[in-house]
Design goal:
Layout lengths: L6 E6 L10 H9 L2 E4 L16 E4 L2 E2 L2 E2 L3 H12 L4 E6 L9 H10 L4 E4 L4 H8 L13 E5 L13 H7 L2 E5 L5 H10 L7 E6 L7 E6 L3 H8 L5 E5 L6 H4 L11 E4 L3 H13 L3 E4 L3 E4 L5 H8 L6 E4 L2 H13 L11 E4 L2 H9 L13 H8 L8 E7 L5 H8 L3 E12 L4 H9 L5 E4 L2 H9 L6 H4 L4 E4 L2 H9 L6 E2 L5 H10 L1
Parallel strand pairs: 1-6, 1-7, 2-3, 2-6, 8-9, 13-14, 13-20, 16-17, 16-18, 18-19, 20-21, 21-22
Antiparallel strand pairs: 4-5, 9-12, 10-11, 10-12, 15-19
């Protein structure tokens, strides 16, 4: 954009799974001054918006419209006329029953520049997530997308039922559950065989995805028995028969699970990706944040005297990163650590050190302070100097035990752990609506801060039926002390171990 920022992006947000947003669509979310979004847009996409962006909900449901379409059109013009970049975020694709054409015409009539960013339509993606290809060699080479909202019995119809009933291999009806009996009747009356396979898919691509299959003659009864409702799509055609062989997403071990990740924002992405790879939907809810210490002087002074130490014990990746950054700022590097023995509390901490080119002398078999102490009991620590860079709220058992073994321990704050910026109201609503199935805790800090972010009296009800998963006994003990009932505990105190414990629980 030049000086005039007035611009509207009509963006397809995809069918629900936030991973199905296009690269260009995501860029439009990030650059927008205003985001106008629909009911079926995954709220996780809004987390990528600028912190200053104005978010406007204009969602429609079958029984309620926040704004009428004409009002939405006017809103887009008004916001763009304020010299702003507007991203109109629409479920699926804006031009597939998304009324994007109407919005674009309104922009043209008001001389507002715009761009169409296509999205992955639910008409293709949802069947794919259910293991149903909409075309398949030997079964059909054509398909049609049909609105399910139009009353099939009205006289003035835009649907040629006689032609689509027998002339198209795969029929995909969008949002047609209310009209299902009439759709079935019209298809059979116009020549579609009653034995034709049919699939109904609700909340496609999301953890709540539910699929039922039958035939035209039986699907209405089956839908009524299942109390199947919108948002759903209807797929009619022989391709539905491939679902038994091609169903894939339901077979992923965490499919259907929405997992709350309470780690700090800068560390959550790795864990979220692991959850996503197993088929779960991660919800990032940072209960902690990692920030610099109030004063770097003690750490800097220890670093300038680093050659005096016999051991340096790193108890987290954060400590490694902070130590290395201060080392460089002090015009030093890891060569100064030559001859100093290094202990890392676990494999990730060891990996972080090795990424900086530093070999580790010892990693305990059990990744907690008590295991380090056991190792050190076999060492002669009398008069040995040990540097312990770590968090401001770390447990005291390690330095105190090392001192009792005769070591001269210098404990310095390398970073601080403070309350995170997780959106409490959003998570509360998810819990109230039973949308979260698992909550993960990866440290005592995540537990303490999680509890502090809610009203203590509301937690028992909010957590009813939710699995609470802990990375190890220290974290579990903290949770128990705070009144939480941990249902899953990792036997290996790593993220991999935590996920493995969840999978076998």
């Amino acid at each position: 954009m030049k000086n005039n920022r007035s611009y509207v992006y009509l963006v397809g947000a995809g069918p629900g799974d936030p991973g199905l947003i296009t690269v260009k669509g995501m860029a439009c979310i990030k650059k927008a001054d205003v985001i106008v979004y629909d009911r079926l847009v995954n709220s996780r996409l809004l987390e990528y918006a600028s912190k200053d962006a104005e978010l406007i909900y204009v969602g429609k449901s079958p029984d309620r419209h926040t704004l009428r379409q004409e009002e939405i059109n006017s809103l887009l013009v008004a916001k763009a006329s304020e010299n702003k970049i507007v991203t109109r975020l629409k479920g699926g694709d804006p031009f597939v029953f998304g009324r994007g054409g109407e919005e674009a015409l309104e922009l043209v009539n008001n001389n507002i520049s715009f761009e169409i960013v296509p999205g992955i339509t639910s008409a293709i993606a949802v069947p794919a997530y259910a293991g149903i290809p909409v075309t398949h060699r030997g079964l059909t080479s054509n398909l049609a997308f049909i609105t399910g909202n139009e009353d099939p019995t009205k006289e003035d119809t835009d649907i040629d039922w006689q032609k689509i009933s027998t002339g198209i291999g795969t029929l995909v009806f969008l949002m047609g559950m209310a009209n299902l009996p009439k759709i079935v009747q019209k298809l059979i009356e116009n020549g579609r065989l009653p034995e034709t396979p049919v699939a109904l898919i609700r909340w496609g691509t999301l953890p709540e995805q539910t699929t039922i299959t039958s035939t035209l003659k039986d699907i209405v009864n089956k839908a009524e028995e299942s109390k199947f409702k919108n948002p759903a799509i209807i797929i009619v055609g022989e391709v539905v028969s491939l679902r038994d062989e091609l169903s894939w997403v339901e077979k992923r071990p965490l499919w259907g699970q929405r997992v709350l990740v309470t780690r700090s924002r800068n560390q959550a992405s790795v864990f979220s990706e692991m959850i996503n790879d197993l088929g779960g939907e991660p919800i990032e809810f940072p209960t902690i944040d990692i920030v610099p210490p109030d004063d770097y002087t003690p750490l800097d002074m220890a670093i300038t005297r680093v050659t005096e130490f016999d051991w340096i014990i790193f108890t987290s990746v954060n400590a490694v990163q902070s130590f290395y950054e201060r080392l460089l700022l002090n015009k030093m590097d890891f060569r100064q650590l030559n001859g100093i023995r290094i202990c890392a509390i676990g494999p990730k901490t060891k990996e972080a050190l090795e990424n900086y080119g530093l070999l580790v002398d010892y990693v305990p078999g059990e990744y907690r302070a008590e295991a380090i102490i056991e190792k050190m009991q076999s060492e002669n620590l009398n008069g040995k100097k040990i540097l312990l860079p770590r968090a401001d709220i770390a447990r005291k058992i390690l330095p105190e035990s090392l001192k009792s073994l005769g070591a001269d321990v210098e404990e310095v704050v390398a970073y601080k752990t403070v309350n995170g910026d997780g959106k409490v109201d959003e998570v509360r609503n998810l819990l109230i609506n039973n949308k979260i199935t698992i909550i993960t805790f990866t440290s005592s800090s995540t537990v303490k801060n999680f509890v502090s972010m809610f009203n203590k009296d509301e937690l028992p009800k909010l957590l009813q039926g939710v699995k609470l998963a802990s990375i190890g006994p220290i974290t579990t003990n903290t949770a128990v002390e705070l009144g939480l009932d941990i249902t899953v505990e990792a036997s290996e105190y790593t993220l991999d171990g935590l996920l493995q414990a969840i999978l076998v629980s």
